Amino acid sequence: MTREELVAARKAPWQRLSDLLQRTERARGARALPPAEIKELSELYRSLAADLMRVRRDKLGADLELHLDDLASRAHNAIYAGSRVGNQFRPIDLVADFPPALRRNWRLLAISAALFYVPMGLAGFASYTDESYALAVLEPEQLDQFEKMYKEADPAKRDVNTDSMMTGFYVNNNVGIAFRCFATGLLFGFGSMYFTVFNGLYTGVVLGHLARVGLGERIFSFISSHSPWELNAIVMACAAGLQMGLALVRTRGRTRLGNLQAHGLELVRQIIGAALFLGVAAILEGNVSPSTLPPEAKYALGVASAAIVFGIVFLSGKNRPIPSDVLELRAGQMPEGRAT
């Protein structure tokens, strides 16, 4: 579509949007409009966003782009003034919105889960059946250190101070792992993939080796209560990292930095969720996992943890409204055929 064809086809909707905006600006907000016109204003804004992206992509003129960009800015201010991304934004909304954000990113979340759990399962099986596989990933001294740690561990000798110290250690360690899985997404997603696969392999090798030398019940009962939180937090961090990397590749007509900024709140929601999961994992790992509870009780806690994690990720927040920054992203990424 040429510039002339686009202007001829879209001039009337642009003018209608401009007329509505003049009324909202005089009334200081879209709430002064009747419900039908508020809906019309939102629809015109979404179609304008698609037109603006087309003008930028096809380079149909800086003057036209500037005109539409100004119109889009006015429409955004009219629709979202005082919304959660405006003056009434509350940080707690980012916490409440993280499960829906995960589900909106479900494809990359599924890829991240495969990148972590498939290598972990394969490495665990290989290390359990043949020690040479474990030695290919870890040094003999490292494997001996893990064996010694779980052979000599005595929950009865731990005190409150030790539990508090270990909780702090696990927070620091787990956050470091998740941060690497997320932050290296800046390398167009490849860093996130590398660290997620590596941590999956590492975890699988340790579990498989300890099970092979007869410490299976100790290690599995130890990790059962906290692993649903910890391991899935790593997967969530990787998914956010992949989304960040993808935002740098598929810019949808924006600059790379601009597209990354447009995805910013959505990334923050997911990272907050991963951080909360890691916090729960650290508390359990520092206090429950090494406790004198019988293995059966720890396994039961593990099942309960997995059920809670499932409920949070797949069921919670279904009635939350879609945040305005997400609506803007969707409007900007609308296929061409939907704009006319």
Commentary on this structure:
It is a single chain. The chain is mainly α. The chain folds into 2 domains: 3-85; 94-322, no CATH class. It has helices at 3-27, 35-58, 62-80, 91-96, 98-104, 106-129, 131-137, 140-152, 160-183, 190-212, 216-224, 227-249, 256-262, 264-287, 295-314, 324-332. Helix 6 (106-129) runs parallel beside helix 10 (190-212). The chain is elongated and about 75 Å long. The termini are close together. Mean pLDDT is 85; it is low at 82-88 and 334-340.
Brief characterization of the structure:
By secondary structure, the chain is an all-alpha fold. The protein has helices at residues 3-27, 35-58, 62-80, 91-96, 98-104, 106-129, 131-137, 140-152, 160-183, 190-212, 216-224, 227-249, 256-262, 264-287, 295-314, 324-332.
Secondary structure blueprint with pairings:
Blueprint: H1 3-27, H2 35-58, H3 62-80, H4 91-96, H5 98-104, H6 106-129, H7 131-137, H8 140-152, H9 160-183, H10 190-212, H11 216-224, H12 227-249, H13 256-262, H14 264-287, H15 295-314, H16 324-332
Helix pairs in contact: 1-2, 1-3, 2-3, 2-16, 5-14, 6-7, 6-10, 6-12, 7-10, 9-10, 9-12, 9-14, 10-11, 10-12, 11-15, 12-13, 12-14, 12-15
Radius of gyration: 26 Å
Helix content: over 70%
Number of strands: 0
Largest sheet: none
Element-by-element helix/strand order: HHHHHHHHHHHHHHHH
Distance between the termini: 11 Å
Structural domain tally: 2
Based on CA inertia axes, which overall geometry fits?
elongated
Number of helices: 16
Structural class based on helices, strands and sheet pairing: mainly alpha
Low-pLDDT segments, ≥5 res:
82-88, 334-340
Average pLDDT, rounded to a whole number, is: 85
- Portion of residues in beta strands equals under 5%
